[in-house]
Amino acid sequence: MKSPILYVFLNSISQSMGKRPPAPLYIIRSHESSISKVSFNRNSDCILSADDDGVVVITSTKTMRSSRRWKAHESAVLTLEITDDHLLTQVIGLLLCLLLTIAGMAGTTW
């Protein structure tokens, strides 16, 4: 089975309307399951992605390589939000399930 792929395009939607889809500038292969959520931090220096197996990946936009990958949950991540120093994820049945500092230090789990 091929791994799910996250394609990174830098074209605006208006440029590609009615045309063939542009070729991706980068192809990121960091998940083994279907990607359920993608988000960027405020500075756009990292891409956050989560999948149906509960895996969360932080990818550097400078190197386009995963800087951190971990199994955050046992089921699909529905919400993935980042603040200046925290990452919040949500799965079915839990209001707020994980809070980690982006610096890599474990925070609080509810």
Automatic annotation (TrEMBL):
Any keyword Transmembrane helix? Answer: yes
**SMART domains documented for this protein:** WD40
Where is the signal peptide, in residue numbers? none
Q: Name one Pfam family in it.
A: WD40
InterPro entries reported for this sequence: WD40/YVTN_repeat-like_dom_sf, WD40_repeat_dom_sf, WD40_rpt
Q: Which UniProt keywords apply?
A: Membrane, Transmembrane, Transmembrane helix, WD repeat
Q: Which domain of life is it from?
A: Eukaryota
Asked whether the UniProt record includes tRNA-binding among its keywords, one would answer no
Q: Start-end of the WD repeats? A: 28-69
Q: Which residues cross the membrane?
A: 87-107
The protein depicted here goes by the name: Uncharacterized protein
Q: Which organism is it from?
A: Wallemia mellicola
